[in-house]
Design a protein that fits this description.
The structure holds two protein chains of two kinds. By secondary structure, chain A is α+β, with helices and mostly antiparallel strands. Chain A has helices at 2-71, 77-101, 105-130, 134-142, 145-230, 250-256, 260-266, 274-290, 335-380, 386-417, 427-437, 439-442, 461-478, 536-546; strands at residues 235-240, 247-248, 294-301, 307-318, 324-333, 423-426, 447-451, 456-459, 485-493, 497-504, 551-555, 561-568. A five-stranded antiparallel β-sheet of chain A has the order 2-1-5-4-3. Chain A has a five-stranded mixed β-sheet with strand order 7-9-10-12-11. Chain A has a two-stranded antiparallel sheet with strand order 6-8. In chain A, β11 and β12 form a beta hairpin. The longest helix of chain B has 18 residues, at 122-139. Chain B starts with 6 loop residues before the first strand and ends in a 12-residue tail after the last helix. Chain B has a five-stranded parallel β-sheet, with helices on both faces. Chain B has five helices and five strands; from the N terminus they run βαβαβαβαβα. Classes of the chains: A alpha+beta, B alpha/beta. The A-B interface holds A 356, 359-360, 363-364, 366-368, 370-375, 396, 399-400, 402-403, 407 and B 13, 15-16, 18-19, 22, 68, 96-100, 118-123, 125-126.
Chain lengths: 572, 151
Amino acid sequence: MASSIETRNLLGSALAVLLTGAAFFAMFRSMDRSSAAVADRFQVNLALQALEQALSNLTDAETGQRGYLLTGQKAYLVPYERGKIEAAQSLDTFLTQGAALGLAPHDLDDLRSRSVLKLDELRRTVNLAQEGHREEALAVVEGGEGHRSMEEIRLLRDRMRQMLLARRATSESVIHDARTSTRRALFGFGGLALLCLGYSLWALHRDIRLRTAAEKALAASEAKFKALADHAPVGIFEMDLDAHRPYINGTLCELAGLSYEEGMREGFRHRIHPEDLERVLSHWSQVRASGTPSLLEYRYILPDGRVRWVESRAAAVPGQDGQATSFVGIVVDQTERREASEALLAANQELESFAYSVSHDLRAPLRHIDGFVALLRKSLGESADSRASHHLEVISGAARQMGALIDDLLSFSRMGRAEVRKTDLDLGALVRRVVDDLGPDAAGRDIEWRIGELPRVHADPALLRLALLNLVGNALKFTRGRSPARIEISAASLGAAVAITIRDNGAGFDMRHADKLFGVFQRLHRQDEFEGTGIGLANVARIIHKHGGQVAAEGAPGEGAAFTFTLPMEAP
Amino acid sequence: MTDLKRILLVEDNPNDVELTLAAFEEHRLANEVVVAHDGEEALDYLFRRGAHAERLPGNPAVVLLDLKMPKVNGLEVLEAVREEPSLRSLPIVVLTSSREEPDLERCYALGVNAYVVKPVDFRDFIRAVGHLGVFWALINQPPPGSLQANG
């Protein structure tokens, strides 16, 4: 936008200048022509004047001559003498000017010779009269010769006068034209020039206005970001390629234990932990060279000796040519995160050793209970009645149940802490292996297996196997009363995920209690109906949730159950 | 004549000792069973020192070794035995309550011959001990140097 205004401005100004130049050029040309015509007109006027003067002088001389001839008074000789001399002078002047003006030479010669003849005639007659021959002199005059010659001169004068007047008219029309064209040039070009100038000025004004507005907007935006950055809870910096920092915020200085002045003056290098310094510097020079965003963890040593872990993230700011001219980044205090993760690790360790000792120390007494009950039964032998036998059986059973609970609890707890290591695996093959592993539980029974097309999935093989063992094992367990037992394993695609369903025709469950199914130690059947600790499905739920999937179940008492879990498809 | 081979049972809990012996009886295994009540006793016996300095030379056919014991525990016994050239090939079966992976890993790394978890269910326990006894004491050929009973 701005540059088009600049262009318009430039064009307008240039045009104005050109038009002004054209106006001046036109005016100068007119003036030139005009002044030539003026000079010419002046010359013509002079010539006209001289011509009239000459005639007038001649007339005066003639008049003097006549008067003298007629009256004989010497007073008339004065105008004659004067006229004679002045006529000669003005005639000379006129002839020169006329020649300069380009009058026909033959006309000029004609005038001269006639004038000379005339003057000669006057001189003769005057001389005659002066010598006493006045009568003779008068005879010449009355003969009409003098009158005629003067008439001829007058005619000649009229003709030349016409020519001069015509010439003067031409000059005047040139002058008039020049004036017109000057006026036209002035108003025409000049007017246009002014318009262009006006336009340029308007464009300039608009440009300035826009730029001022843009500058204000920029200043406002910068102020906003500065306020944001100054008060952000993380360190913010801008760094140029020579590691100078034109901008740092207060939080950054706090993190490094520096005052603002120190930070700006000395930088932050001296606060970096000596063990991290080399790594940080080499990382930075790499980033500067490649311009790629960086992520780096390192330590500051604070003035009081404390160590603070921070994470810095920086990205390059591209300049006009796409090359990085500076870096902007944030520095985040990692203390909390590290403390939390350390605490978590410690807690996990504690849990690990707790689970370990629990599993070992709790099992031993249980084993003893069961073992010695068996020994007791043996030593009682035949003398044990059915009631005593039953009591002993209960004690053993309870001990065994507790053992199973401990095992399940332990594995559930371990599951919670286990890392999910996903890999691409063939679900069909895994299911078939699980079915094989459950072979002993299926031995001797009439079971219809319906295993559909199962896709490849992205999951932790060990954990998924456990989940499947649980689900298929449950199906086997709860179909114990059925013959044939039908167990169906199928898969359906949900676009971004796949849903696997294990359906059986076993004992089923009441949907009203469905929300308890996946709870820890929750059972929907009595121990004497179907054995179990109620942790299997809780384990399944945990495993599937760790994979980012969902679990669901539906069923009806006596009509079997269907358990479905989903696994998200990993984006390739 | 079948030579009955000696079994060394290393177990700190007297109840477990009793149950194990009862299990042996159940299977009518008549082998001599020597009991060490902790790791130190076991090492004393195997290295023929301390209280057992005077015993006749010769190794048991198999050692049933518990892991969790006071003073010197099962892993330490295992380590010490495997470092001793004369005892390196001694068959050792770890018999323990622990099913923990680290224990399994460590034991196999130290060269245990077998690892059996003591089941809570006594019937299973009898079966397991019986299998062990039958295999190691009757079927398996121990390395040379095993003591004959009442030699």
